[in-house]
Design goal:
This protein is of the alpha+beta class. The protein has helices at residues 2-16, 54-60, and strands spanning 24-31, 39-41, 47-51, 69-78, 81-84, 92-96, 99-107, 112-114, 128-133. The longest helix is centred in the N-terminal third of the chain and has 15 residues, at 2-16.
């Protein structure tokens, strides 16, 4: 009897659980400045602070992405704060020569692709930023 009640309570809780909010998209220019929170400046000149998972934070703090025309997917946590979806969902995209691309990092010595800036996991050489079309992500 207790097992049935527990199962019934679990079923009710799972049905009543809040569904995740669908992602919103914000477009604008990435603003990466030393000592400041990364932000995106919209076409209305509104600055929105950006945050995300650990890998996304590394990309957002990379000074090489400053000034990119970008779109971010996620949701607002406050009127001027935006939390990006996890990186594996391709939540940070940039526009380059009319195409939407993902920011990746490439080691031209070891031919290893990374999705966050830093030294190569093999040879420790600094990786170079490499914008890739979404269909070309391996």
């Amino acid at each position: 009897m207790r097992v049935c009640l527990c199962l019934l309570a679990l079923a009710v809780c799972s049905v009543a659980a809040e569904k995740p909010k669908p992602s919103e998209i914000v477009s604008g220019k990435l603003m990466v400045r030393p000592g400041e929170t990364p932000a995106i400046e919209t076409s209305e000149h509104k600055l929105i602070q950006l945050d995300g998972d650990q890998q996304t934070r590394k990309v957002l703090h990379d000074p090489r992405v400053n000034g990119f025309d970008a779109e971010v997917h996620g949701h607002f946590t406050a009127p001027d704060k935006f939390l990006l979806d996890p990186q594996h969902t391709h939540s940070l995209l940039v526009h380059d020569h009319g195409k939407t691309k993902m920011i990746t990092y490439w080691c031209d010595v070891c031919y290893i692709r990374a999705y966050a800036p830093g030294p190569c996991v093999c040879c420790q050489k600094d990786t170079e930023i490499d914008l890739r079309e979404l269909d070309d992500i391996r």
